[in-house]
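Pipeline run #58 for the internal structure catalog. This entry was flagged by the ingest filter as a single-chain record with no existing model, so it goes straight to prediction. Upstream metadata was stripped on purpose; only the residue string is passed forward. Reviewer on rotation: M.T. Logging verbosity set to normal.
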Amino acid sequence: MFFYSIVVGIDAMVSLQNGNKQDLFVQGQVGYMHYLGVLDGHGGSSCIQFLRSLDFDLIAVQPDPAKALWDLTKKGFYGSGATLTFVRITDVIEVWNMGDSATTVYLNDQVFTTDVHTFLNPQEVERTETLMYRLEHTTAPFPVSETHIQDFPSIMGHFMTGDKIVPSMCLGHNGCTGFAPHEMRIPFKPTDQLRIVCVSDGVTDMRVDLSKGSAMDIAKEAERKWKQQWVYRGRTIAFAAGDDVSCVVWENKVVELPSLCIPYSPTFFTTEDVKMLEGLLGVHIRKIVEVVIQDHKAFFVHLNPGEMTPTLRQMYVNLNENKPVKIWVRANWFWHIRLSDPPFQIQKVGWQYERWDGKGDYFEFAKEEIHEKTVSQLAHFFQAF
């Protein structure tokens, strides 16, 4: 098996603190594993401030990250809590959701969306029945089109502890909501096309399309809708205040490209001829190894990370399934292409990629880079003296 990975850039994650300034996004990589998530605080700020102080690298490697956060916040946060939507990606996609933040996973032509925990869900009403003493039925305005909003039910739960909140499950609040997150486990192949989007309800309430655009595009569209004029009950109004808006997008467009092998080539071909693959496949070669074997040659072609175009994606699908792949290099000659070293595993593209200028050997460049987190830790260390 081999792995592809997104390169996380500036537009992959964004938080616009337009409301109570309690949104938080997280994103990171530990070894082969990537993670991303959004937390939306409510009530007092003590819970979200505590969550901001955590090292989410340590949370992400726990067997159950949602349970780890629950255990850390189930005591001592009366009147303060936070929703959670969290994704971990290894050779499988794992999703945990608590509250009304949400994750959407686009896997080729399939779409997976987390359940939202509110008292509009009869199962949540039944689950929390012994935890509450009453439900308060109210309404709130939500968009029904690009120009109109209307009132929809919005139910608040009054819990035995004295807390009253709209999400039927969340972190904090002294654990009054109980722990029963919605979980998804989604298998995928390295050659699948993936897009994963985590958002706060400041995005979903505005019915923003999550299937396209960067995190910044999505957040800005949500912000625009919060600030626009709406038709409500026959008159034009604007929301008195917008909500915080957070979005993290993870895609596997830019990836490490598995090395290729040309197992048989006449001896008159050279490494200069092999460089034609750059134009033919739209890749950037970092190194070519030429091996002479009696009356022919073999070439091993090592690639820099690059964008996984539809053509490349289909080529690697065929190669991974041991189907023949031919590359025509002359009118009367083609090369058979194989994977260089199957079975194999490819490390995910690291955070260093966004600093790379696209020249030379990316992996040599990456070795010399120091992670910002490491720089920060070193700075704190030296400040202590």
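catalog note: The first helix runs from residue 46 to 52.
catalog note: Confidence is low (pLDDT under 50) at residues 1-10.
status: ready for reviewer M.T.
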